[in-house]
Amino acid sequence: MTDNAPISILLIDDHQLIRDGLGAVIDMEEDLDVVGTAASVTEGLNRYLELRPDVVITDLQMQDGTGLDVVRTIRKQSDTVGLVVLTMHAGDEQIFAAMQAGASGFVGKDAPSTEVIKTARHAAVSPKAFVCAGLVGAMMRRQNAESTALTEREHDVLLLLAEGLNAAAIGGKLYLSESTTKSHIARIYQKLGAANRAQALVTAMRIGLLSTVQPSAR
Which residues are in the HTH luxR-type domain (predicted)? Predict the structure, then answer.
């Protein structure tokens, strides 16, 4: 890409409607030019070698592989090409997988075309700086999940708390001293942001650490 030349783009998607529709929208931009399309991973990689575009926009799920295969393969060959993953499957795991594979950007197919165009421009200029509208939310959810992760022993204690046992009884069940058991309980409360047993059990149920709670204490 020279200073005056438009950004050349290769579109890889196994749906012709996406290739034609998105291609037409992109070509309306003076600084962008769709130089080729492909309907599979294999064809896309061959077209990349043939065309050497500035940016590759690839679908995530295709018949012969995934867009992550495209991203990893091309990124091994070049640090300067922009790589954008476009997908209907825009969950947190897909976002992190694309980022780890070396993508420049990640866009859901439900996003407006302006978002795709903006991401393609970014990818051309900063190919190794990952952007995604949902990245902050995904990172916050991952951080929250990690902060509430219990150790195996803490989970054992939580299960017995849910049965209504007190610290002494839990210690007896798990062959722990009462003080050690109380330390585990305190860490569980801290991780779950709870001030007492009831709050801890409600939070544990809500985030899937518990499926049932005994109605009465022992």
Answer: 143-208
Distance CA 141, CA 157 (A): 25
Q: Strand pairing partners for 58?
A: 12, 85
Nearest Cα to Cα of residue 163 among 206, 199, 210:
210
Tokens representing residue 14 in the block? 């196994």
Cα–Cα distances in Å, from 122 out to 37, 83, 92?
Answer: 20, 10, 21
pLDDT tens for the chain, 218 residues: list them.
556 789 999 999 999 999 999 999 999 999 999 999 999 999 999 999 999 999 999 999 999 999 999 999 999 999 999 999 998 877 888 888 999 999 999 998 889 999 999 999 999 999 999 999 888 777 877 776 666 678 899 999 999 999 999 999 999 999 999 999 999 999 999 888 888 999 999 888 877 788 766 554 44
Please list the residues that pair with 61 across neighbouring strands.
66
Q: 85: closest CA among 76, 77, 72?
A: 72
